[in-house]
Please model this.
Amino acid sequence: MDTNQVIFRKATIQDLDRIVLMLSDDVLGNTRELYQDPLPECYIKAFQSINSDPNNELIVACYNENIVGVQQITFTPYLTYQGGWRATIEGVRIASSERDKGIGSMLIRWAIQRAKERGCRMVQLSTDKKRPEALNFYEKLGFKASHEGLKLHL
Model:
């Protein structure tokens, strides 16, 4: 793969099937996602909400017109850091056939640049503790495990 030919763009509804497939093709994702044809309505509704929100971007990485990666970036204003904005990166996945080719690094660097364009003072993300290799990946890109994150599933 020539990574110079990877492009990044905003996802469209036509991309949703491939996105959900990538989200489910993962050790953790296959226990929480439901990939089927047709896609459950919950994914369509979520996509529509993300797509209509100017502070949310669902971005796909494409190679030869094939979607090979995805991430969601949410831009949030805060009172802390003197009213600074933050970008939160979520739902990062690379197609299983395309992993370890540098696409993930390119995708995250693209998100960092996008955050700068939006005037963000910080980029944040979380990774499941069951994925130590993901933590190592993000640390190599300059992220620091500076906080303990907590979640409450409802």
